[in-house]
């Protein structure tokens, strides 16, 4: 007797998936049908709504016409693709399908009904795939007459453009079924990743937790919507900020996905932020309604218009302090990068370190950086020489006596920074602004090491400082208004984009980035998906410039662990506890690219 996972009827190598039924002809279903028809499959589009079926046909006609105009397909190929697509309002039209892809609304009741009806319609060997992005594939499969043929096939929107397809197996799924749809995805020009059945799978499981945290951050009035979105675009290289992305996805859709994920995971990260419920119930669902986190010029438009929350443009109403000279403390990559930024902008810079040799080495590093810019045609040799000439290397912080802004970029150690601020307090003239570049430590703790905490502020540059446009401006409860105004003016003069945030762990970027990275590590730790599949999922499905494990190895696992610990200590959320796998790798000295081994191994230089 054959077991469900070795059923001979699922020997699909001799039975390619030639005819595919797509159930549900909304945007996603129509996109999937288009891909299949263009790839030579016979496609049956099924929807209970005649209007939806007609709209799907019209959409396919329109998209293929554009493809002909752009020279991507011939007129004959267009005619053939249209001929391969038929629609119906009757589920029985799926009777001859080799594969059925269900893309109905995210409701167990609706999907269960479709699968129960299909059991009595399709052949025993027909594969049944659900396009759900949040519901349990196992639960859907368990109610099917043949659970071994049920799996998840999660495309991303817009389906014709997005390369990622998550192939989701339950404990009941036959390997032959997985192999068949994986081969199909490859033939369609997609990149399939194999994942297990857990809330949100890989891409949405990581993405929606991050989006939810961003919504909660905005709801807490910690930062403006514009600053949250700018921080993640400029600080992480993301194509869109999280709140703009929520508006694009649909606030109501995001809430539904998070509700489904939370019902399965009971992870607080997935418990929808109350603002998502409030916006949804008010009908402010994002672009499609014309208003969500932002306001748009019309429903369905991508054009953002001013509203009551839009910040006023122009100079600060408060006059700032005069800044002509800047002191940068430190001799590492960040210190030299910041000194280069200020010198390029015309400021006189004192680059001081614990010894003359370290300071001169840091200045030499800037010289090499400027030479590379000259070689690439980004600046003239004369401009490079003038820039380097504005930098004075010093082996003592006494050289900061006349600077208007003293900025430290030393080790991320609170005791070291506090000692340095005590030195600043003694050395720097009255009225000088004292700034820290910390990425995770409390700015107020540095301020309290001085007798003038009102002059202390955070200026968190991102590495490499000459290239990265973002600066997180972190004011404490003691920071003077004119200090804040001055630093924002200075950021503009050095061509950086300042975002305001309060003095709490992680500020904006790290507070949203590192829980996402930690959750990715947990996926690998639990053998849910591979490093490569998770990295591919986030690059292809989320538009991230790097996958989480690529990024962790670049940042350094020790640095990542330190930030995770700070976040966990401050917010006391069990979900923020560093993944044990990260702790084990750090303990083993596997710190990423800098040691030649982290989550991956690297060739020694």
Automatic annotation (TrEMBL):
<keyword id="KW-0436">Ligase</keyword>
<feature type="domain" description="3-hydroxyacyl-CoA dehydrogenase NAD binding">
    <location>
        <begin position="326"/>
        <end position="503"/>
    </location>
</feature>
<keyword id="KW-0560">Oxidoreductase</keyword>
<dbReference type="InterPro" id="IPR006176">
    <property type="entry name" value="3-OHacyl-CoA_DH_NAD-bd"/>
</dbReference>
<feature type="domain" description="3-hydroxyacyl-CoA dehydrogenase C-terminal">
    <location>
        <begin position="506"/>
        <end position="602"/>
    </location>
</feature>
<dbReference type="Pfam" id="PF02737">
    <property type="entry name" value="3HCDH_N"/>
</dbReference>
<dbReference type="GO" id="GO:0008691">
    <property type="term" value="F:3-hydroxybutyryl-CoA dehydrogenase activity"/>
</dbReference>
<dbReference type="InterPro" id="IPR036291">
    <property type="entry name" value="NAD(P)-bd_dom_sf"/>
</dbReference>
<dbReference type="GO" id="GO:0016874">
    <property type="term" value="F:ligase activity"/>
</dbReference>
<protein>
    <submittedName>
        <fullName>3-hydroxybutyryl-CoA dehydrogenase</fullName>
        <ecNumber>1.1.1.157</ecNumber>
    </submittedName>
</protein>
<dbReference type="InterPro" id="IPR006108">
    <property type="entry name" value="3HC_DH_C"/>
</dbReference>
<feature type="domain" description="3-hydroxyacyl-CoA dehydrogenase NAD binding">
    <location>
        <begin position="19"/>
        <end position="197"/>
    </location>
</feature>
<dbReference type="InterPro" id="IPR008927">
    <property type="entry name" value="6-PGluconate_DH-like_C_sf"/>
</dbReference>
<dbReference type="Pfam" id="PF00725">
    <property type="entry name" value="3HCDH"/>
</dbReference>
<feature type="domain" description="3-hydroxyacyl-CoA dehydrogenase C-terminal">
    <location>
        <begin position="200"/>
        <end position="296"/>
    </location>
</feature>
<dbReference type="InterPro" id="IPR013328">
    <property type="entry name" value="6PGD_dom2"/>
</dbReference>
<comment type="pathway">
    <text>Lipid metabolism; butanoate metabolism.</text>
</comment>
<comment type="similarity">
    <text>Belongs to the 3-hydroxyacyl-CoA dehydrogenase family.</text>
</comment>
